[in-house]
Design a protein that fits this description.
alpha/beta; Spore Coat Polysaccharide Biosynthesis Protein SpsA, Chain A; UDP N-Acetylglucosamine Acyltransferase, domain 1; 2 domains; 8-stranded mixed sheet; 6 helices; 34 strands
Length: 365
């Protein structure tokens, strides 16, 4: 089985963090987002994956490489944005696709039973089977109406709540017959949701597969935040996961639930947790307290600092006796000098040096 992962978006709603780090390398509950996708495909015995890339493609290529747990990884570079269908057509020129192949959005984290989905796809004789998930507010998604045979009879992109035909939304994971490639125009942006799926629905060739396990569509900072802590609770429970391993023993300075990366250096009387997600190669100074926060890789924090309910980007250096309050976003490559106070929901953009207090809700650009 071959797979195409759409990884070329600009991640505008994840700015300013995404100015420096591509969305699919954002850490999510202990590993970069792209590895959640690749691990799902590996369980389904996919042997070759094409990543449709554009924005910050080189960073993604350097991190992922050309192999992952035995799967071959190839890259299809968009010279300009091609929507949701165009990258699939372009990627099909990079690898010979199987009669049925997988296409999925790279910013979706889900535990979908792809084996069962394939069985349903083959029995339905559909051209495309779309994984569906039920949500409370369908207005941000492509919403479907299905018949008693799970055929999608109507596909409405981002309707208002009152006009939504159901609460079943497009989950961003598809099984596609190779013949569908003929429907996708070459050389321009094209939309699966607006141009391809309505035609297939009219022909009775668009099937739905209801997925009820966890599913996170990480399109915004709030969704990124929620996915991290929901998955942390699922993975860690009441324990600390450190370097990928569960350890129920009491660990110096670490309060569960927490997920900690490799090579953490933590000073005396420092406290991490509860509810912290910490990346790799992080240094925490003595008497520092961090709770309810996400720290990317290579964050260095001096002593007696307090961080509560914040996101701290990679390669950031934070001085002594700094206070970072809830909702603050610290972008990658930032330096915060001693004794600065970063107010609630303040946002620091990349490559800035902070030498004085930042007011709540302020943007330092």
């Amino acid at each position: 089985m071959k797979a195409i992962v759409l990884a070329g978006g600009f991640a505008t709603r994840l700015r300013p963090l995404s100015y420096v780090v591509p969305k699919l390398l954002f850490p999510v509950a202990g590993k970069p987002m792209i590895y959640w996708t690749l691990d799902l495909l590996k369980r389904f015995q996919v042997d070759e994956v094409v990543l449709g890339v554009n924005y910050l493609a080189d960073a993604l290529r350097r991190t992922v490489g050309d192999r992952y747990h035995g799967m071959r990884i190839k890259y299809s570079l968009e010279s300009c944005p091609l929507g949701t269908a165009g990258p699939i057509k372009l990627a099909s020129k990079t690898v010979r696709l199987t009669k049925t192949f997988i296409a999925m959005n790279g910013d979706v984290i889900a535990d979908i039973n792809l084996n069962e989905m394939l069985q349903r796809h083959e029995s339905s004789q559909a051209a495309v089977t779309d994984a569906l998930h039920e949500v409370d507010d369908p207005s941000r998604f492509g919403v479907v109406e299905i018949d008693s045979f799970s055929r999608i009879v109507r596909f409405v992109e981002k309707p208002s709540r009152k006009d939504a035909p159901s609460r079943l939304v497009n989950a961003g994971v598809y099984l596609i017959d190779r013949s569908v490639l003929n429907m996708i125009p070459s050389g321009r942006s094209a939309s699966l949701e607006r141009e391809i799926f309505p035609v297939l629905a009219d022909r009775g060739k668009l099937s739905g597969f209801l997925h009820s396990d966890y599913w996170y569509d990480i399109g915004s900072l709030s969704e990124y935040w929620n996915a991290n802590f929901a998955l942390m609770r699922r993975i860690a429970g009441r324990s600390v996961i450190r370097a990928g391993r569960r350890d129920l023993r009491k660990q110096f300075g670490l309060v569960p639930p927490s997920i900690i990366g490799k090579e953490l250096n933590i000073g005396g009387k420092a406290k991490l947790g509860p509810n912290v997600l910490v990346g790799n190669n992080v240094r925490i100074g003595a008497r520092t307290k961090i709770s309810g926060s996400i720290l990317f890789d290579r964050v260095h924090i001096d002593g007696e600092t307090s961080i509560t309910g914040a996101i701290v980007g990679s390669d950031t250096s934070i001085g002594r006796r700094v206070r970072i309050e809830s909702g603050a976003i610290i972008s990658p490559n930032v330096i915060i000098r001693d004794e600065a106070r970063i107010g609630k929901r303040a946002v620091i953009h990349p490559n800035r040096e902070i030498t004085e207090n930042v007011k709540p809700f302020a943007h330092v650009m």
